[in-house]
Structures are given as C-alpha cells and as structure tokens.
Amino acid sequence: MKKHADIMGMPVTIEIVDMHAREEDCKEVFSYLRAIDEQLSPYKKTSEVEKINNREIDTIDYSPLMRKIVHLSEETKYETQGYFDIYNKGRLDPSGLVKGFAISQGAKMLAAKGYKNFFLEIAGDIQTSGTNRNGEKWAVGIRNPFQNDEIVKIVYMSGEGVATSGIYARGAHIYNPKTKKSVIDIASLTVISQDIYDADRFATAAFAMGEKGIEFINQKKDLEGYMILKNKMAIYTEGFEKYTTGK
Amino acid sequence: MKKYLPIGSILVVFFALVAARSFLNADQKTPPLKSSTDTASSDNSSQNVSTPTPSSGGYKDGTYTGDTTDAVYGPMQVQVTIQSGKIADIKFLQYPNDNPTTLSINQQAMPILKSEAIQSQSAQVDIISTASQTSTAFKESLSSALAKAQ
Q1: N or C: which end of chain A has fewer CB within 10 A?
Q2: Angle between the A95-112 and A196-208 helix axes, to the nearest 10 degrees?
Q3: Does the structure's ipTM exceed the value 0.90?
Q4: What is the value of pTM for the model shown?
Q5: Would you call A97 an interface residue with chain B, using a CB distance cutoff of 8 Å?
C-alpha cells in the first residue's frame, strides 16, 4: 500500500509492504503529522511557534510538545557546538528538527501497529523498516544537486533513516549561526543513522559547518555521510560504504 | 570516536603492544617438542584456550585473550588473533580512556574520509533522498515577503 499526502507544505509518502495494510493506519499517521504542523509550523498564523514569535505566549505557557521540541533543540545545539540553532535572527524556527522528529514518531506509530516492512518519507527525508516488496533492502537514491532528474548514489537500507540537507536553487535555506551568513560552499549533505531524527538534525547542523560538516559526521560513531561539493566531488565517511554495497 | 589520539593514549598503545608481544614471546620460548620444565615456566596468560604452541610460522592459529594489566592510565586487556602462525590482529578489550572503545591495529584507529567524483546512476530505486525543494523555495519566498512587510 502506498499513500501520499501534502503536509507541512511538503510531499509525504507512506509505503507499507506487509500484507493487510490498513488505510486507516496511514490516515492516522497523516493526521498526526498535520497536528504537528498545526502546532509547530513557523508559517501558520495560528501555530504555537507563530504565537511565540509574536510574543503572545510566555515560556511558562509552552505546550508539552513545544517544551519537548525546545529541549531537543537545546540538546542538539550542545551536541553540535552551536551549529544547530532553532533561533534564526531572533525568530523561533524549529523546522530543522521537527521534520526528523515527526518522521521518527510516525514510523514508531507504524511499528507499534505491527508493521515491519515500510518507509515513511517527508520531502526526501526517510525512515525505513524491513525490506521492499522484493524482499530486498530499500534502495534509496541520492539526487544530483546539479541535475534534478539524476541520481548520483544509491544506498541500501533496512531500518535506517536518511536525510539530505542542501541547496538546489540559487541562494541557501540554511545559514551558519556562527558567521551569520548563508552556507554556499557545499551542494548537499546526506546523512544516514539508525533513526531519521538523528540523521535530520545532524544533517542540518553539519551542513551549516560547510566542508567541515563531513568531519563532524565522521567523528560520530552512529552517523555516516555523503557530502557533495560545488565542484562535483563527493567526500564521504568510511563507514558510508557499507550502505552502498550489499542489496 | 576521537579523531586525534592524545599522546597519553599513544603511549598506552605502545605499552600495550609491548605487553602483547612479551606475552606471545613467552610462548615462543616453548619449543615444538616441549619439555615439562619449559611448559611449567612459560608464562601462560591465555584465559580461554590451552597453552598455545607455535606452528611453523611461530604461533598457533587462534584467538587469545591476555590478562588485564595496569597501564598507568587504567586497565588494559588485549586479545590477539593468530593466522598462519603470525599476529594478524590485536584488539583492545579494555582500554584506559574516558571513552572505552574496541580498537584494532588492523583497522584505522581514526575513521577516514574518502572522496570520489559524483557519477550518474541508472539503476532503479525505491525512494529518492533529496533536500526539500518545496520548503526551500517556500521559505525563501516567504522570507523575502516578510522582509518587505517589516
């Protein structure tokens, strides 16, 4: 069963390979993702994030989910020496962490329902479980940042999460909180981890470090990365190779 | 995993290798036709197999665990693997460090980075990982609009 939805302004896909997959289960995950978006989107006037940015809510009145997100963000900021920061020019924008968090939670919901072979994707960030309909590891293609219709690397995963940070258009959507400037020296950084939550937040932070980002990923035992530079060379961690061999 | 081993750790590694070598040298003193005196006096530190006797390459193939020793900075314990009579690998089962980790001399102690030119792939895939273009364009557009609105 494969279902699509448009949530958070992004395409969401659930594919469940297991027999007897129920449509209601997919809908439940979509509803959960919509609820997260309603509350945490920096683009919705009625979201809690927007109210916080408009000074309508005090810290003591944050919802439990908001508190959790802020706590996770502070943890991530610490773990990335400040390169991950949900405050951007004085405004709260937790989207660098929320997407991975939401996919991770959604995947856990599917697992709790007994599904073993599936993936959940939000706009290029993916959590996999088990195998595809051919009984093989999920084949995930890394898009060529310079050519939309091309794939430059294939990774085979079963239970891992993968996230890609990057800039495909002119300009950049991730900025370096240390230099206060946009990151433009690398084209994309793909990170693989057991949990998409980790892959996503560290891909976001490492991308902001520029070329040093791949060193940061390399030093973390449970992360592997593939960084594509503006000159069309790729730098990748040694352990990344275990995902490119062996279907 | 630390990228740069501090000098203290390098010294510890050195001592450990020396310790491992001397542990194995003690066995090498035992000749193929061992006498009871030699067997009795050889330093049998191996914890999990019978006294190793050297094969034609010098040592008996197998994996042997050494004693836990005091390496100044903390406890040290090595495990050596013999293949074709020679030391093929030495693993640190206990390593005096804040972050104990199993290191092997046959692995790079520090994970390395590799590089390649990107190449178009033609094989079929199930899913594509990409930076989210929609939100990029959306955010950029929104940012510029909000900037004008201020």
Answers
A1: C
A2: 170
A3: no
A4: 0.67
A5: no
- Choice between B88 and B143, residue whose per-residue pLDDT is larger: B88
Q: Where are the alpha helices (DSSP H) in A140-212?
A: 196-208
Distances (CA, A) of A187 to A64, A82, A182, B53: 36, 21, 12, 57
User: Which position has the higher pLDDT, A213 or B45?
Assistant: A213
Q: How far apart are CA A219 and CA A237, in angstroms?
A: 9
Closest Cβ–Cβ partner in A43, A168, A218 for B113 = A218
Convert A183-200 to b/e letters by CB count within 10 Å (16 or more is b).
Answer: beebbbbbbbbebbbbbb
**Closest residue in A to B142 (Cα–Cα):** A43
**Is B142 touching A (CB cutoff 8 A)?**
yes
CA end-to-end distance (rounded Å), chain B:
47
Nearest Cβ partner of A126 from B124, B127, B134?
A: B127
pLDDT band at B147 (very low <50, low <70, confident <90, very high): low
Q: Compare CB distances from A154 to B3, B125, B130 and report the shortest one's residue.
A: B125
Does residue A226 surpass a pLDDT of 90? yes
Give residue A53's Cα distance to chain centre.
23
Q: Are B135 and A173 in contact (CB under 8 A)?
A: yes
Measure A224 CA to nearest chain B CA, in Å: 10
